[in-house]
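Exercise 7. Predict the joint structure of the components listed below.
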Amino acid sequence: MSFRTTTAAALALATTAAPAFADEVNVYSYRQPQLIQPLTDAFTKATGIEVNVAYLEKGMVERLLAEGDRSPADLILTVDISRLAAAVDAGVTQPVTSDTLIQNVPAQYRDPDNQWFGVTTRARIVYASKDRVADGELTSYEELATPEWEGRICTRSGTHPYTIALVSAMIHHHGEKAAKEWLEGVKANLARKPQGNDRAQVKAIWAGQCDVSLGNTYYMGEMLEDEEQAEWANSVRILFPEFENGGTHVNISGVAMTKAAPNRDNALKMMEYLTSPEAQEIYAAANYEYPIAPGTEPVALVNNWGSFTADDVNLMTLAGYSADALRLVEEVDFDG
Ligand code: FE
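Solution:
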């Protein structure tokens, strides 16, 4: 199994099912140390509870299943509704009842059965060439399938979870038939076959291969941090398309308590801390994301990209369409 650890404590966690101590909490994280460390440090400082984190690159659900009741893990931290839903489906999480969590996390960003709670969001938006796309030229996702955009769109694979979530939202808003027609329309407008990651599409816009691409908001911040990629980032601006009968599509990073959770009380304290307005703002700032608690704000750079109204569909509803979305992507041979 492939995983990285940053501390001796995390290594011990990874190799032995340590007995539960009253003063610790164990976390399996798909998110990177630089995002998590500021939060765990602040939590330990405030509560005296030590946090052991195993940073995993894959196989989290499989590992929790293999460990069963003897798992040392109390919490899982990950991004994307597909991963949170997969953990729930596998039965490795447990519901958590907490007024604090309900208060901190708007209803659309938590599981209706309280199996997971969102901490930050990212919007799936359109990167548009500053030179070749006019202000207001694109306002909806639906428009991407119209002839105006023929030969002008770049995107990553249709089977990537980011695309699947967007297609799921299209199914939610318009039904399966219309979603399939939309996929066919977008495919017909592609400047090249789907390939590469979100940043590679912005590079293609910079290189003149296409005029717009689909991508997540935080990549703008990440590209601006990189000497080479900053040039790509500066060639585009962010447009916030909406569904014609909804808002802008967002996805989340979230936290869930494991079914085994040997340190349940500490785990709940950490969930409440992670979803607190202060922690959300720290967490969001580290990866140019959006905090979701009432009254919170993203960092100035992120705010400058513009404001938008997030779609208010519960993300677990979208997860319910993911198998249909994948089937449609395959039926239209989106990547072919
Ligand atoms: Fe990403």
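Discussion. Residues 1-18 have pLDDT under 50 and may be disordered.
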